[in-house]
Amino acid sequence: MQWDKDAEQAVAKVPFFVRKRVQKRVETEARQAGATQVTMGHVAACRQRYLHHQEDEVQGFTVEACFGQSGCPNRIDTGEDLSQRLEALLRAQGLKEFMKSRVSGPLKLHHEFRITMADCPNGCSRPQIVDIGLISASLPALSDSPCSECGACLAACREEGITLAGPETGPQFDWQRCLACGQCARACPTGAIAQGFAGYRILLGGKLGRHPQLGRELSGIFSAETTLAIIETCLTHFKAENRQGERFGELLNRTGLAFLAPYTPKTA
Ligand code: SF4
Ligand code: SF4
Ligand code: SF4
Q: Residue 55: how many CB atoms within 10 A of its CB?
């Protein structure tokens, strides 16, 4: 839907963590009113409601994603569309009612539990600063196809995570550097590097506010099923341990990540 210039400028000033939702809401209401273009009037009506009846707009959680599905060439296709399954999982948790019981005063949008997905390690949707961030990941794997030593994978890897050790050995990966971005497999003309396991990296407890912190990354790349199981475990922990509506990151600073031991590698 088209936006006039004033409306576009006004919505650009909405805080980024609710901007997408506000845009969607304004468009829906403009359409319902029979408009073909969003104007300042539509934005102003929506803004009034968010300012004065914010609790009605709170649903207890948000799930956001980057623009990967709109055709971004960097997008890693994990073969899964997690967003709907995530929404269903979060909806079943009754988070709005739960937060109401923990927060004194009216609920605000910033109380919502936030999950953000990024379809590659570039992280345009900022998965590092939300309660749970997911980053799609695709590990490279060697195949039986020969390496021609063309060097395309070296040029594609921004992490300098590949070395060529001769035509017999083929490319070697430095797993300390590799971000599982999948670019080397895309660039390889012979198929010597294939796409290996694809799944999700998981970051927990990121936040902004008065004491900002980046999410802590769990070690490993997880399948869709395990990712959903980890998120459900996190929500159970969040509800069991939450004090006065604190953010997940603050809660994890107190409790640590021991509750996720079944999902983390054992150390010797
Ligand atoms: S995070 Fe990656 S896939 Fe998503 S929009 Fe940014 S560059 Fe594209
Ligand atoms: S997957 Fe990405 S980071 Fe890893 S070796 Fe390939 S290009 Fe480099
Ligand atoms: S892009 Fe493929 S063929 Fe070229 S050097 Fe790398 S592994 Fe070998």
A: 14
Task: Give the pLDDT confidence score for residue 55 in this predicted structure.
Answer: 74
pTM: 0.86
Give the containing element (helix H, strand E) for 254. Answer: helix 248-255
Please give the backbone phi and psi of residue 252, each rounded to the nearest 5 degrees, phi first: -65, -30
Query: Domain locations in the chain?
Result: 1-52, 138-193
What sign does the dihedral 240-243-244-246 (CA atoms) show?
negative
Distance CA 180, CA 197 (A): 9
What is the fold of 1-52? Helicase, Ruva Protein; domain 3 (1.10.8)
Per-residue pLDDT reduced to its tens digit, 123-160: 999 999 999 999 999 999 999 999 999 999 999 999 99
Going by the DSSP 8-state scheme, the letter that residue 93 receives in this structure is T
Q: Best substitution site from 120, 122, 143, 162 to test ligand 2's pocket, by max atoms within 8 Å of Cβ?
A: 162
Task: Provide, for the chain, the percentages of residues in helix, strand and coil under a 3-state DSSP scheme, each rounded to the nearest 5.
Answer: 40, 20, 40
Q: Does residue 62 surpass a pLDDT of 70? A: yes
Enter the CATH code of domain 138-193.
3.30.70.20
Cα(208)–Cα(212) distance, integer angstroms: 4
Which residues make beta-bridge pairs with 114? 62
Report the alpha-carbon distance of residue 54 to residue 164 in Å, rounded.
Answer: 57
Ligand 3 lined by 162 (C-beta under 6 Å): no
